[in-house]
Amino acid sequence: MDSGPEATTPSPTPGEVLGEGSSEPGGATVVAAPGSDGRAMSRVWELSAQFGVVFALVLLVVVFSILLPETFPTLGNARTIANSSAVVLVLALAATLPLRGGGFDLSIAGTMIVSAGLVAEWTSRGVPWLLVLVAVLAVGVAIGALNAFLIVRMGLDGFVVTLGTLTALEGVALAISNGEILTGVSAPVISIATHQVFGIQAMTWYAWILVAVLWYVYDRTPAGRYLLFVGGSPDASKLAGLPVTRIRTMALMGAGVLSAFAGFLLAGSFGAVDTSIAGQYLLQPYAAAFLGATTIAVGRFNAIGTLIGLYLLVVGIAGLQLFGATEWATNLFNGCALVAAITFAKLASNRRGRV
């Protein structure tokens, strides 16, 4: 008995496959992999998050170069930007040490100004510069050790403790200078800071070298990874056998040393020290550090990101100043940048946690 014509099922057209796919020559239908659009968008977001600050820096440079073609895109202006930000870059790197370990040190500006005052006072009295450098670095270690004792050993709040330390150090600096501008910084100290190498002051090269050193420590050594683990979860780090107390102590002492070195460079760069300016050197380093946590290694305080974040701030301010902006515009730019940096760093950290 004939069963009749054999039943056939027509092949779906490309438009019938849920609107996806495309028709290839010969009638073959290519269907997009499920979720490919989502993965592509996620990748775009990751790249924009990782290099957003870099893109913003490039955009600022391009915009200011177009608007100020005779003053901004010049070699002299680039050198000025690099040299003027060297001290702040060292301070910003100092801030990343306790931040990466989950702590906070507001006293870095106070340590810097006390060290600068001591450099001016001692070298004007004929003390050899090398001995002065060793002495102020020891002062930085002592201040860091004091902070570590109060925060790590005593369990006090780091923000409150270092705010108190900052205020006390500002008082010490004013006592050193008796409220006057200290002059007479020795010629060798000035030369160490301002001697030019390939048209760039030596202190800028020191800061760049510190960026490279901290990048290596953070990304290529167990110490850098341990510091990151401690900052992420001190309790879990203790259970894993890490010496949490020692790591946090070393981070605060390292911040003290770098801040003292910044003071040495500050005294050499100006040849005189105004001990009342510590507060002016607090906002920008932290803005740079938090901006740095939103780029390169997103959600982590890192050296390269801090360098890029600082240059974003300095380029923006330099452009505004060339436009004739007054001091309020500079403060507004720095303040908004800090708030934005903290916001983006928090969002990036939350996203990493979800991932």
How would you describe this protein?
The model is unreliable at 1-34 (pLDDT under 50). The protein has helices spanning 36-67, 75-84, 86-100, 108-124, 129-153, 158-177, 187-194, 202-220, 222-232, 234-239, 244-270, 283-292, 303-322, 327-354, and strands at residues 22-23, 29-30, 196-197, 200-201. The strands form 2 sheets. Strands 1-2 form a two-stranded antiparallel sheet. It has a two-stranded antiparallel ribbon with strand order 3-4. Helix content is 70%, strand content 2%.
Query: How many structurally independent domains?
Result: 2
What is the overall silhouette? globular
What is the end-to-end distance? 64 Å
> Strand share of the residues?
under 5%
- Which structural class do the helices and strands define? mainly alpha
Estimate percent helicity: 55-70%
Total of DSSP H or I helical runs spanning 4+ residues: 14
N-to-C order of helices and strands: EEHHHHHHHEEHHHHHHH
